[in-house]
Design brief:
The chain folds into four domains: 80 residues, no CATH class; 75 residues, GMP Synthetase, Chain A, domain 3 (2-Layer Sandwich), CATH 3.30.300; 51 residues, no CATH class; 37 residues, no CATH class. With 278 residues, it is an alpha+beta fold. The strands form three sheets. Strands 2-1-4-3-5 form a five-stranded antiparallel beta sheet. A four-stranded antiparallel beta sheet has the order 9-10-11-12, with no helix packed on it. Strands 6-7-8 form a three-stranded mixed beta sheet, sandwiched between helices.
Length: 278
């Protein structure tokens, strides 16, 4: 019998692998391992195991099978990493910044409209993945040939979006905490200005955007609450009948459950929602 485990790689990349549950060396969280990948082996760290890893794997469905992968389609964990394996992985991480600078120089030489965001060596150095962002489609075939000749390995250029770039590079948000997309958020969903409008926030994108330049992921978190609560209130701008006569709704406070009204005479007052006669 085998169990499924989640392994985390550089840039918060996560994949799923199997490990014999009856093995004499049971795995634990944060244990470095060598795993089987396409055309070689790679180095990662255990980030989830047991039922949690199995459920996340089912939701993922990116291990080569559709619908979500079963154990037969998931690659294996080869072994627990040795001190020498860890040393090799550390040396590769230290080298990747130099690789990224080199790639950026070659991108400029080829005059390509793209930005090399990150570089990642496979542990056995059989593959070098370059992550880049671009506003349009890029023909990078000549660049790949150039890099393959330079680094003498298989080159993969992978285009990512702004949110994926923030996930790989990590950082601190305006809230003072680690970016959600890097720490726990499974994926960055598109965010529209309608979410900010529903929450009564500024509609200036500069004020509600994260380090990636896109609207804050956290605008999603309380959106359902606002939608449900606003159903209890009259719409702003609507004229309602109250004990004082016809009054127009100026604003609503869903947390204090209060409504600001303005009479035809121009007088403004604040009343509790439960006291408002609709």
């Amino acid at each position: 019998m085998t169990s499924v485990l989640e392994v985390r790689f550089k840039g918060n990349r996560r994949e799923y692998f199997t490990w014999p549950s009856e093995d004499s060396s049971p795995l634990r969280l944060d244990v470095p391992v060598i795993v089987e990948v396409e055309r070689g082996q790679d180095f990662g760290v255990i980030s989830a195991l047991g039922e949690i890893a199995a459920k996340k794997c089912e939701r993922c469905g990116t291990c080569g099978a559709h619908p979500p992968a079963d154990e037969a389609t998931i690659r294996n964990i080869v072994r627990i990493a040795t001190p020498e394996d860890r040393k090799t992985a550390t040396q590769l991480r230290e080298n990747e910044e130099e690789v990224r600078r080199t790639v950026r120089d070659r991108v400029r030489q080829h005059n390509l409209p793209m930005k090399a965001s990150d570089a990642e060596w496979q542990w056995d150095k059989r593959k070098l993945t370059i992550y880049f962002t671009a506003e349009q489609r890029v023909d990078f075939r000549a660049l790949v040939r150039d890099l393959a000749g330079l680094f003498r390995t298989r080159i993969e250029l992978r285009q990512i979006g702004a949110r994926d770039e923030a996930k790989r590079l990590d950082g601190i948000g305006r809230c003072g905490r680690q970016l959600c997309i890097s720490s726990w958020l499974p994926e960055g969903k598109p965010v529209s200005l309608s979410l900010a409008k529903a929450q009564g926030l500024s509609l200036n994108p500069v004020q509600i955007s994260g380090p990636c330049g896109r609207l804050l992921c956290c605008l999603h978190y309380e959106h359902d609450f606002y939608v449900q609560q606003r159903k209890r209130f009259p719409k702003e701008g609507k004229t309602v009948k109250t004990a004082e006569g016809s009054e127009r709704v100026i604003s609503v406070d869903i947390f204090r459950e209060r409504v600001t009204l303005r009479s035809e005479a121009g007088e403004t007052r604040v009343v509790a929602l439960e006291q408002l006669r609709l």
